[in-house]
Amino acid sequence: MTDTLSIRDAVETLLAAAAVAPLSHTADTFKTGDPDTALTGVVTTFLATADVIRHAAAQGANLIITHEPTYYSAEDTDDVAWLDSDPTYEDKRRLIEEHGIVIWRFHDYWHMMRPDGIVTGLAQRLGWTVDPPSVSMDDAIQAMTAGKGGDIKRAAAATSVASVPPMTLGAFAQHVKEQLGAPSVRVLGPDDLTVRRVGLTVGALPGKMTIGTLQRDDVDVVLCGETREWETCEYLRDAAFFGRPKGMVVVGHATSEEPGMEYLAEWLRALLPDVRITHLPSGDPFRTL
User: Fold this and answer.
1) Which DSSP string do the residues of 110-161 spell out, in sequence order?
2) Class of domain 7-111
3) How far apart are CA 192 and CA 170, in angstroms?
């Protein structure tokens, strides 16, 4: 606990260490509470669920750094009019206010770091060596919107690629499931496909960017957070039909990015050595029957 450092000070320290160019528009803003309050502790998480908020308050933390939105849409606290009078929204808002919790989102800048903070945490959990991408995510977004169809090959160059010992796709999927503690994973591609190089399309990347990654000669399979099923899935099914099989392992959005927020807690401890910093996983919201 510290009586001298404000929450705003802590976030500014974090951003200075991240050393990324400021964006004119970013999701990385304070979502709730008073950031000029003295900092009592930090919790990092993929998503500030009601349960995470409750546990953060119980351990005396008043800053939650979340990767994804708190209020169920990309606009988050910028637009909650559509949730007007919704009892779940009101209950969550009251829970946050009662405990004096400040929520700050750390999404854009964490992905913009070189290397990407989310990818670093995932690779660390899996024990993989990752080649840094030749193109930044900001450049990739611009490439996606260039011209009529976008420059997909350039956008795909922003994907980090890991080298793994040769193994079949089936064995690879089982390894990923075990290392990430996932209750299940979804697999596309032939089980006997040899996997040596893995494109890390974590989170929820656009289908075109994931397909562009699969078009790379140095990628055998993509490790994916979530995907729209009529895009990359159908590309892979047709590619296999025409004799160009590749693979995809879908682990879930939270499962693919939670290790990166766990790594954030480790990274922050070096910046704020006098502050209690913990990671609280939000967990996979799905169960498999």
Assistant:
1) HHHSSS-HHHHHHHHHHT-EEEPPSS-HHHHHHHHTSTTT--HHHHHTTS-E
2) alpha beta
3) 7
pLDDT digits 0-9 by tens, 136-152: 777 777 777 776 667 88
Q: Is 253 annotated as a binding residue?
A: yes
Q: What is the pLDDT of residues 206-247, one digit of tens each?
A: 899 999 999 999 999 999 999 999 999 999 999 999 999 999
Token reading at 166: 């040769």
**CA separation for the pair 26, 22 (Å, rounded):** 9
* Segment 14-30 mean pLDDT: 95
Please, what's the b/e burial string for 96-105 (b: 16 or more CB within 10 A of its CB; e: otherwise)?
A: beeeebbbbb
- Give one word for 189, left, alpha or beta, with left for phi > 0 and alpha for psi -120 to 50: left
pTM given for the model: 0.95
CATH architecture of 126-253: 3-Layer(aba) Sandwich (3.40)
Same topology for domains 7-111 and 126-253, yes or no? yes
Cis amide bond preceding 115, omega within 30:
yes
| 257 marked as part of a ligand binding site | yes
For the chain, give every domain's residue range. 7-111, 126-253
Q: Report the alpha-carbon distance of residue 184 to residue 206 in Å, rounded.
A: 23
